[in-house]
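Extended Data, panel c. Modelled sequence:
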Amino acid sequence: MSQSIHVLHTEWSDGWGGQEIRIIEEMCAVRDLGVTVSLACRPEARIREKAREREIPVHTLPFRGNTDLETLWKLIRIIRREKIDIVNTHSGKDTWVGGVAAKLAGAKFIRTRHLSNPINPSRLNFINGLADYIFTTGESVREDMIRCNRIDPKKIASIPTGIDETRFSPACCDREEVRRELGILPGQIVIGNLAVLRSFKRHDLLIEAAETTLKTHPDLLFLIAGEGPQRPKLEESIRDKGLQKHIRLLGHTEKPERFLRALDIFVLSSDSKEGVPQSVIQALMMGLPVIATDVGSTRDLYTGDNLLLLPPGESRKLQQAIESLLCDPDRRRKLAENARSSVRNYRRDLMAEKIYSIYKTLLKADRVR
């Protein structure tokens, strides 16, 4: 019988957002193909419990910094004891200790770069160059790392997060039932955003755009799903503007497909750091008209007639785009008709197959089935 591939993922972050969701979904997707997966993270990391919910073995380590020798030696022992074939790192701090541990223990080292903000190009920041392979979540991120960080084009690939097209489908649930649960009035147009409440997601711009739009469309409802450090600031802004009845923060949702099913228009307002945003792929799979800012690799999703792509950081442009769709139901309908088919190559199974193929290439095909 051929030997299974064992991949250990490392993650320093203690948050729960697109990056951490991608890690868990990727691990589960390749596990469906026969790969053995495990995770190393900090004890307080939220991804720890999420992994355990999906029956993924977890090792808890300090990950105190780039030169954390305790974590380094413990990782080496784990790699050797459990016969890890590949160590796949994700954030900066765990990439240093995880990458060096992989090299010292004789495992392959894959680095995944999730964000689109530039990486320090100094030659002292050499850890990415040590990787046997690099995954990025968008083409622009890949191109930047080749150009600015001197990464060999043969050792890096853009593999956006794959979405479960069965889960994220207009047929996933009853739209009217979900809208009733959310207290949406019959016939009310709902504009929504799904994102962790972090500063670069620029919910403040969406709130500004909503305030202006509501002057001419007072019956609109804006729903924001997600949790994060910006919540108090956003709540204060909504309260100061007197928009509590028109803009609601729903908090984290475990069922984003149900939230999206309730919407009429989806908006992404980020100004930086995005790879290919999972929420935009999800909204398109749900057949929604989408307005998104042209940041990171969001443009990878744009086909010309499936969404509106705007310059980032401008609430006025955001407001104008929302207004244009509100005043043109035919355009909304056309975007919706083109949405789902435009992301057919962003499926979860395709992501897993691409990653598995690279695993086999790195380890040599005769080692695996």
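The chain has a mean pLDDT of 95. This feature is highlighted in the accompanying rendering.
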